[in-house]
Design a protein that fits this description.
Largest sheet: none
Structural class: mainly alpha
Number of helices: 5
Order of helices and strands: HHHHH
Length: 160
């Protein structure tokens, strides 16, 4: 069955628990889906929630890239402050980004845009946590996607 492109195309159930008890609504909708009972489904809210799940994956990718880029910038611009904490944060963010991309390979074409948006988040992190001035940072992300995803790309292990 082909679905219309917008959630507004579906009439919402009048007695939907969607606004009253979201958890109960999800459980009921899952039960109806498993039973293939299309008449009881809350199509409008189901379509909206499924679309929202995809948006959350994109947001998670951008957020992780922001933290990764922010810590790489701190690593590059504050070499005297390097720490194992920064190193582990960089490694953890890379691992999480790669997991997101493995679980959602259709996000790969979005990577360039996500890096650009993540760079803004990374700059905010640097500006809020360090004395580095905005004018001292590049206007665009100085790291390639390959560098961001490469576990061998700095940092090198620090002796702390």
């Amino acid at each position: 069955m082909e679905l219309p492109s917008t959630a507004q195309s579906y009439p919402q159930k009048e007695s939907s628990s969607y606004d009253i008890d979201f958890y109960a609504w999800t459980q009921e909708q899952a039960r109806l889906l498993l039973q293939q009972d299309s008449h009881g489904l809350d199509w409008a809210n189901l379509a909206e929630e499924i679309a929202s799940l995809g948006k959350q994956q994109k947001q998670e990718l951008r957020n992780r890239l922001g933290v990764l880029i922010g810590h790489l910038l701190k690593w590059d611009y504050q070499p005297d402050h390097r720490s194992k904490s920064w190193e582990f944060t960089i490694a953890e963010q890379r691992d999480e980004i790669l997991e997101i991309l493995t679980d959602n390979p259709s996000l790969r074409p979005y990577l360039e845009e996500a890096v650009s948006k993540g760079y803004v988040k990374g700059m905010r992190l640097v500006l809020s946590e360090t004395p580095i001035a905005k004018d001292d940072l590049p206007s665009t992300c100085p790291y390639t996607i390959a560098q961001l995803l490469d576990p061998a790309f700095p940092p090198n292990s620090v002796e702390v």
